[in-house]
Amino acid sequence: MPHDHIGSPGGPGRLEPREALSHTGRATAASVAVALVLTITKGIVWYLSGSVALLASAADSLLDLTASLTVYFSVRYAAEPADAEHRFGHGKAEAFAGILQAILVAVSAALLVREGVGHLVNPQPIEASGWALGVMGLSIALTLVLLAVQTRALEKTGSIAVEGDRAHYFSDLGSNLAVIAGIAGAVLLDWLWLDAVAALGVAAWLGWTAWNVARGAGNQLMDRELPEDERDRIMHIAAEDPRIINIHQLRTRAAGPLLHIQFHMALKPDMSLRDAHSILVDCERRILAAYPAADIIIHADPHGAAEPHGAEFFKGDDPVEAYDP
């Protein structure tokens, strides 16, 4: 599930934005290249054959190209450094791209349901021209290569945008496999209903995929906390210094390749400001060693002598209590 990727070895914050871009950039460039090749190929074959089905398929590939270009630019924008207008960086651009891809996958699922139900109620003969099968074979081969590149990038970065793009191309792969299943069933077994059943199965899987992509993107847009194991890891790293009495009020959120971390640190009340600052800097460096793309804010509290402070907008129990090393 998309949210789970935040806690994986390749989740947000684990790579510098530019290093993460080296992986996501390669995957999105491959996505644009595949969509462009398929759009041009299908357009040429449609012109030569006059097949309306191929014209529809070319239009679908043109839509894929538009979506891939959106993701291509979004991952690059997300990796841009923070500026005067965006002090927390541009990481959420990936989440917006993920939402767009989730919508496209959901629409693909809905169209497959419509076609599947129609063919189930009224089975139609399958037209399998050599041109159509050839283009379908090329589409499947290129999509499989692209999915391998996207999966590798996802394992490295946990990118919501790349995950959405991968789900989109999975929908294309599923559609093509459903068509081939229908052709095989009709030609070899005379089962005209097989393409409808295959289409409905693919549609159900795509619907579930779209939901997971949308949920992962929505979690980032709504600043959802990282998983408990990731929060525990941050607490342990932060509290390694024996001069720290405890760590509390930890808040975390992911935004594309970026990770935002803030918490309070209890120190001895008679400690000098210089010593307290040194402890905070050392703590930041430990966290940055594990999360190079983290933006960290630490507030020091004099243990046992701190008055209540800060806005009381948080309601409910803190999922991680104060951590005492």
Structure description:
The radius of gyration is 25 Å and the shape is elongated. A 3-stranded mixed β-sheet has the order 1-2-3. The protein contains 8 helices and 3 strands, in the order H-H-H-H-H-H-H-E-E-H-E. It is 63% helix and 9% strand. Strand 2 (258-267), helix 8 and strand 3 form a beta-alpha-beta unit. Mean pLDDT is 82; it is low at 1-8. With 325 residues, the protein is mainly alpha-helical.
Which properties best describe this structure?
9% strand, 3-stranded mixed β-sheet, mainly alpha, 325 residues, disordered N terminus, 63% helix, 3 strands, single chain, 8 helices
Q: How much is the average pLDDT?
A: 82
Q: In angstroms, what is the radius of gyration? A: 25 Å
First CA to last CA: what distance? 32 Å
Shape: elongated
Question: Would you count the extended β strands for me?
Answer: 3
In which range does the helix fraction lie?
55-70%
Low-confidence stretches: 1-8
Tell me the number of helical segments per DSSP (H or I, 4 or more residues long): 8
How many strands, which pairing sense, and closed or not: the largest β-sheet?
A: 3 strands, mixed
SSE pattern: HHHHHHHEEHE
Read across the widest sheet, the strand sequence of neighbours is 1-2-3
Structural class: mainly alpha
Tell me the strand percentage band: 5-15%
